[in-house]
Amino acid sequence: MSIEIKIRKNEPVDRALRRMKKKLDRENIIKGVRAKRYYEKPCEKRRRKDKVQAFTQMLRRRYAE
Fold first, then answer.
1. Cα gap 52→59, rounded to integer Å
2. CB-based burial of residue 38 (10 Å sphere; 0-12 exposed, 13-18 middle, 19+ buried)?
3. How far is the C-alpha of 13 from the C-alpha of 49, rounded, in Å?
4. Which range marks the domain in which residue 20 is found?
5. Is residue 4 part of a domain?
C-alpha cells in the first residue's frame, strides 16, 4: 500500500503534495484507514451499507423522471 510520488524537475513541493493527496483520495486509502481505525460489528456494517443503498435508490427514483 505504498504510494510513490516523484517530484518533477523544478516542481514546487506544494504541487507535489497536492498530487499526492489527490492520489490518496482516488485510491480511497485515507477513507480505508479511517474506517479501520475502530472495530465495526458486522451488523453495523450491514446497517451502514443498507443506509447507503437506500439513499442511492432514493436518488435514482427522484431523478429517473
1. 11
2. exposed
3. 38
4. 13-63
5. no
Long-range contacts of 2-8 (CB under 8 A, 24+ apart): 3/27, 3/29
pTM here is 0.56
pLDDT digits (tens, 9 = 90+) for 45-65: 999 999 999 999 999 999 987
pLDDT tens across 6-16, in order? 999 999 999 99
When divided into structural domains, the chain yields a total of 1
- Rounded CA gap, 63 and 53, in Å? 16
Q: Is residue 45 part of a domain?
A: yes
User: Which element (helix H / strand E) includes 40?
Assistant: none
Q: Which three cell numbers stand for residue 38?
A: 475502530
Residue 1 has pLDDT above 70, yes or no: no
